Amino acid sequence: MAKLSDPVSILKGVGPAKVKQFAQLNIFTLRDLICHFPRAYEDRTKLVTIEKLEVDTPACFKAMVMNTPRVSHIRKGLDITKVQVADHTARLNLTFFNNRYVVDQLQYGKEYIFYGAVSGDFIGYNMTNPVFEALTSPPVTTRRVLPIYPLTAGLSNAAMLKAVRQALAICDPPAEILPEEVRRKFGILGADRAYYAIHEPNDMVEAELAKKRLIFEEFFVFSAGLSLMRAARAEKKTLPFTHLDLKPFLAALPFRLTGAQMRAIEEMRKDFAGGSPMNRLVQGDVGSGKTMVAAAAAYLAANNGKQSALMAPTEILAEQHYASMKKLFGPMGIRVGLLTGSMTPKEKRLTREAIASGEIQLAVGTHALLTDSTVFNDLGLVIADEQHRFGVAQRSRLSAKGDAPHLLVMSATPIPRTLALLMYGDLEVSIIDELPPGREPVDTFLVGESYRPRINAFIRKQVAEGHQCFVVCPAVEENEDLGIKAATVWADTLQQTVFPDLRIALLHGQMKGAEKEEAMASFARGEADVMVATTVIEVGVDVPNATLMVIEDADRFGLSQLHQLRGRVGRGGAKSYCILTSHNKNTETLQRLKALCKTTDGFKIAEEDLKLRGPGDFFGSRQSGLPTFRVANLSYDLQTLKDAQAASAQWIDEAGTKDTPEAIALRERIGELFLRAEGTMN
Description:
Blueprint: H1 16-24, H2 30-34, E1 40-43, E2 59-65, E3 70-75, E4 78-86, E5 91-97, H3 102-105, E6 111-116, E7 118-119, E8 126-128, E9 131-134, E10 145-148, H4 157-170, H5 180-186, H6 191-197, H7 204-235, H8 247-252, H9 259-273, E11 279-284, H10 290-303, E12 307-311, H11 315-329, E13 336-339, H12 345-357, E14 362-365, E15 379-384, H13 392-399, E16 406-411, H14 417-423, E17 428-432, E18 443-447, H15 452-464, E19 468-472, H16 487-498, E20 504-507, H17 513-524, E21 530-533, E22 546-551, H18 559-566, E23 577-581, H19 587-598, H20 602-613, H21 638-655, H22 661-679
Parallel strand pairs: 5-8, 11-16, 11-17, 12-14, 12-15, 13-14, 15-16, 18-23, 19-21, 19-22, 20-21, 22-23
Antiparallel strand pairs: 1-10, 2-4, 2-6, 3-4, 4-5, 6-9, 7-8
């Protein structure tokens, strides 16, 4: 017997080329292959007569071959084979392209099972390239429920099914991790049956039962993992902060904090005064002032002789945090340092030496803070900004650089309640639901391409009034197949043709770190009138003088992402606007975009986005922290989530530390899950 950890290359017919194709789907081992579940099924168990076939609707039917297949050579590279079949209701012409084997496979006077869709002006007129099997052959592509898999270029569904069948034949499926009483209570299939049935169900009912089991299993594993993390955190002890006076900090601010900000700070102060490490999420809409809450936490840490680390997902955001924190804390005698990947080796070395000695009390940086060469003198507080960009394992790795430090994570992306159940199940939550005084809502409009002259005139008007504008494009380089605006091309068009008298800047993710930082800094200094960019500006870019955001091909973005982009304007005192452009005529798409125009409530937008796009796309391709669920869908499986959470919590209380085979297997699966979630960011 093979092992689940064996590479897929041990399978017959899986050579170097197929290994590369499987790798594109993150399939490297037999476990990966067996856990590559179908995205859909085709029920090919029902046979219909030829006269009942419907145009463009695939179906299975039994028919007899009425003549010997004839091959016609049309031109180089194109052969056509034609044959007629019939049953007791009608006749049907079949056409095969470049398939000479049909001549040998379909024999005159014999019956076969076919699967395909008819086309033409009349029902039964023609069918192209149907699959077929002899009545005496085992059902492989007909007379069965056929799984349809997620695929990649060059890898067919048949090849995937063949590989999965081999894997299931030579190794046992993943071990059972669900306790028997849980399976009995919720009507859950056992692992041995479920992992086979998800790939080769006897009928659609069994396919659904297998899917239910695997959805429950995914939620159970993740919920149990969070429960174990909470239990481990509760056992940790840390010295409480004794110096909790914030009056000097508040007096140094040039503005008053909002009631919501002060409420979040008070919740943190209680955490600091306790004997266990704080694990808190500060969640607030765009511009609600989360950074000042983090600054208050860092101030208290410094006053208690502890260092703080603030990790940001991009160098641009890290630079901005460093500049604002340095300006704030400099007069207070608290030293702030910056550590990013693009710094010179000498700059990194000097910064790391200052961190290790304790000279730097607040270290601001990117993933460079996670490296083994970054050592803290006495790390007491870890702050992760834009938490969804970091995996659970990454924030744990930074926390491991101190002795049970407090943890504060921030998110400007409003998380729907259903998603928060999973993403932040191990954290306490503070919500900042109040905008600072003077912040006006950004008026948002959806327009078509016919409004282009008016858009251009409005851009010119904003610039004439001394303001600046963002123009966001969904792509960096031009792609004729997609037909969407590219930042590089559009910036050149605006500069050369539309606004030759204005200063047009460009910013996108393919630029080097130093180039991006300089472009953003230059725009913030007012050295450009219009910034054409990609979504690299989505997070943390702060230009108070920007009053207009134009988002080209807005239908290419999720609602939450559009809301984040919109939040880049309206950060100053002037009235601000957001214009969404789209030539998409799809009714559902237009309704989605109009929903954004009607509200600035990020939480309402997030709920709508989750319904429309599902959790897999909620944060875009770079989402992390939330594991990649293979079968579960939070939009539809909320009750299963609740059942699994309750069952896992009970299991943790009653048997979480026991060494039963199921408990050992579950702990191994939990470790694999969080390791995989961390790997999505590497």
